[in-house]
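Tutorial sheet, problem 5. The four components below are modelled jointly, 466 residues in total.
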Amino acid sequence: MPRRRQIELNEATREEIKATARQLMAEKGTAGLSLRAIARNMDMTAPALYHYFGSLDDLITALILDGFNGYADYVQHQRNEAAAAGMSIPQQIFVAMMAYREWAVQHPVDFQLLYGNPIPGYQAPTEITTPAATRMGQVFMELLMPGLETGEISIPEPQRTVPAQVKAHYSNKYGMEGETRAILHMMNQMWSFMFGLVALEIYNHTTPVVGDAVAFYEQATRSHLQLMGIKLD
Amino acid sequence: MPRRRQIELNEATREEIKATARQLMAEKGTAGLSLRAIARNMDMTAPALYHYFGSLDDLITALILDGFNGYADYVQHQRNEAAAAGMSIPQQIFVAMMAYREWAVQHPVDFQLLYGNPIPGYQAPTEITTPAATRMGQVFMELLMPGLETGEISIPEPQRTVPAQVKAHYSNKYGMEGETRAILHMMNQMWSFMFGLVALEIYNHTTPVVGDAVAFYEQATRSHLQLMGIKLD
DNA sequence: TTATAAAGTAAACGCTGTTAACCTATTGAC
DNA sequence: GTCAATAGGTTAACAGCGTTTACTTTATAA
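Model answer (structure tokens):
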């Protein structure tokens, strides 16, 4: 049986491997992710890594999990600071949406890892990644729901209708009904919009078209919030 | 100097290579794209392909170009049919947006090729791909601008403000001013939303969350159009 | 002290893109 | 008709990749 200290050493090595992987990806893009390159950077041989990760895919999954958590942590943290500064809920939502873009711009490779499929042959095991991916939704739900109660948010008419099949899914899977359900539905659409803006920018489809991606994102977000009945004043 | 017939033969082989590449990608995902696999499927050796494409990257660029064009063609065609059937401009916009999703769902690998970066080390040469990518925007601009004139579209208040830097870029690059410029700005945001919805579905982040991706997309689109002042009646 | 498990190695397999050297058949020009 | 040129193909090779196998070393638990 391995001792405590050994387990800690093993865990430390796992972290070092992931850190090296992230560094390589930051330098050379997702293409730079290779077991042999990681091993080379760590003065080891590639097969040794198999003592820490069952395969390259397992390593990627671990990186994705860390990514989702770090992403949600960052947005949550920015939101918390906004709350501590006494900002209104709509303002906190705006801050969170700005944070959503900031993280992606600062970690473009991680973003591609999370929401693209940049590694040949790799398919993320959704049963493992989905829980971590869902955390981001919770951050926004924790803003939208109180906002609805305080009256700072009023769901606009076109957003009140939820398709029957989707309605059923929300009820069965999340146990959500009524206005709470409508808010979840609205959040999913807001998320899609936000994601679309960010993903297009990360993949270089935005700047050539609008010139200034930051200004575009900021204004698009403001307009979207207003149209969604979230009064930024 | 090569003769006409030789040039045609060369062109035919190029098309056959691309077709084989598309077939392999459809079967095994973007990971299945490999020169050696293509050559194997064509009963050739890999180096022979270098007579037709300078490198794997060149082949990918050609596939991307075809993809953007086929994508725009499909959406344009669906829009034309809707127009021929006497649909209103808002309805044509709705049809075009449905078509945008349909093509992506039917060609998920191509979609990833166009808007992701699934090939290790490959970076799309934007000066080549951007013109083809922009065609899609034209399809929608050709709907929004007449819609504005007929009064079927009225730009909502929050959409009327365009950030200064973006405004300048629209003016300098596309020579657009006033309401035309506002429509271009709105179109870019509509596109982002549409893209977000579709990309999340293609990368399997939608169905686990909303249950029925088609119903979700349809309703989200309707709601978005209504909020954007496009009256679907 | 000794059996065991963890952590490392080298060698090999089959895959990849790409290059170099070479051959063959068709073509254009004289 | 002859001849040089060129398009289109071949094989062999290089360096890289993930992964497996067999083997060694080292630290630990009993």
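Marking note: The CA atoms of residues 47 and 63 of chain B lie 19 Å apart. Full credit if you identified this.
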